[in-house]
């Protein structure tokens, strides 16, 4: 089967030459292991961090090894009591058409109500990041205003809809008129600021007449500054991601003074450090998807060979909603 390995660490923006497509043999299964055929690979911003050698919350991805990645697929063979051929499962099998993992590292999936691919998005890790930051850090009350950046993306789209369901006014920030129209008209946000339209601060001020009580931050830098400028006293900030600095750019904050003046609380989080909450969060997310109350959009690249370009596109904002690679 085919896999993609990290061939070289990026210097600045990610380029296709950072990756290498290889053919590898199907492994023999050890006791307890399961062999999966991956149907979808998830492309996520965190992979950019793993490609670099710089210190972060997780170790770097090794050179010449399969690129890390969340996958969903179907069991081909199993030496684990909980899995049988034909079962659907989520795992971390990487940028590869197939792979083996211990059964304890896989999550069995029920695709009767929720499509398989959605377990990589709204009902998977990105959905959980949205759920965690909103329900554990922002703690929104009905009537409050919540701002979310990268609003049309995998995480942001879920944040806004969950906050709407909790009775908040929700304002997104996204790049481009088409993304903003999607955020408003399909996802049901109250407003969306197109930060590429030239006057993000003024547009955000107009969209938040009652100020801002919660910020779900995915970008950082000027985007966070614009939201900070609108905060009410005791607003909460869930710092989920800093994609605006993914190529090593500095992200100075002009409005750090507001943290004091408005007595704000800001907390960063890594969703995979809170696995004890996943069953509760995933249950809520899957139920909302099944009921049609949580909308999602997917941008799907076809075939493993298309993954590097799709990943580069994700880091340039070319995706709408969850970026996936279809492998079958
Ligand atoms: P998205 O689906 O939102 O895709 C990334 C989006 O980010 C792009 O579409 C683009 O949207 C925006 N973007 C890309 N580059 C830039 C840039 N230089 N400046 C501003 N915006 C940019 O990705 P996810 O929903 O998967 O992830 C969103 C954020 O959440 C990321 O920061 C990610 O690292 C973080 N995250 C954190 C987790 C945690 O546990 N803390 C878990 C999961 C995700 P646009 O065109 O609107 O700019």
Automatic annotation (TrEMBL):
Xref: Gene3D superfamilies: Medium-chain alcohol dehydrogenases, catalytic domain (3.90.180.10), NAD(P)-binding Rossmann-like Domain (3.40.50.720)
Enoyl reductase (ER) domain segment(s): 14-325
Record carries keyword Transmembrane: no
InterPro entries noted in UniProt: ADH-like_C (IPR013149), ADH_N_2 (IPR041694), ER (IPR020843), GroES-like_sf (IPR011032), MDR_fam (IPR045010), NAD(P)-bd_dom_sf (IPR036291)
Keywords associated with the record: Oxidoreductase
Protein name: Zinc-binding dehydrogenase
């Amino acid at each position: 089967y085919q896999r993609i390995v990290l061939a070289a660490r990026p210097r600045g923006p990610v380029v296709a030459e950072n990756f290498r497509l290889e053919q590898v043999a199907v492994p023999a299964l050890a006791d307890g292991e399961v062999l999966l055929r991956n149907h979808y690979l998830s492309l996520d911003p965190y992979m950019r961090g793993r490609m670099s050698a710089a210190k972060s919350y997780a170790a770097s991805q090794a050179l010449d090894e399969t690129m890390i990645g969340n996958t969903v697929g179907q069991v081909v063979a199993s030496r684990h009591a909980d899995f049988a051929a034909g079962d659907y499962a989520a795992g971390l099998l990487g940028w590869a058409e197939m792979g083996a993992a211990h059964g304890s590292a896989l999550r069995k999936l029920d695709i009767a109500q929720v499509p398989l691919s959605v377990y990589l998005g709204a009902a998977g890790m990105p959905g959980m990041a949205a759920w965690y930051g909103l329900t554990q850090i922002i703690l929104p009350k009905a009537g409050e205003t919540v701002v979310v950046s990268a609003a049309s993306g995998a995480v942001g789209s879920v944040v806004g809809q969950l906050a709407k369901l909790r009775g908040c006014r929700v304002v997104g920030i996204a790049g481009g008129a088409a993304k903003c129209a999607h955020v408003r008209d399909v996802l049901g946000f109250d407003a969306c600021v197109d930060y590429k339209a030239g006057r993000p601060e003024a547009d955000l001020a107009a969209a938040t007449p009652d100020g801002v009580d919660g910020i779900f931050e995915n970008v950082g830098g000027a985007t966070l500054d614009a939201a900070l400028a609108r905060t009410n006293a005791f607003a909460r900030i869930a710092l989920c991601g800093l994609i605006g600095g993914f190529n090593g750019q500095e992200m100075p904050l002009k409005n750090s003074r507001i943290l004091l003046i408005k007595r704000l609380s800001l907390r960063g989080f890594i969703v995979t450090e809170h696995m004890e909450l996943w069953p509760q969060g995933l249950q809520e997310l899957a139920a909302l998807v099944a009921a049609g109350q949580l909308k999602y959009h997917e941008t799907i690249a076809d075939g493993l060979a298309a993954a590097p370009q799709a990943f580069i596109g994700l880091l340039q904002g070319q995706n709408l909603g969850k970026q996936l690679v279809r492998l079958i």
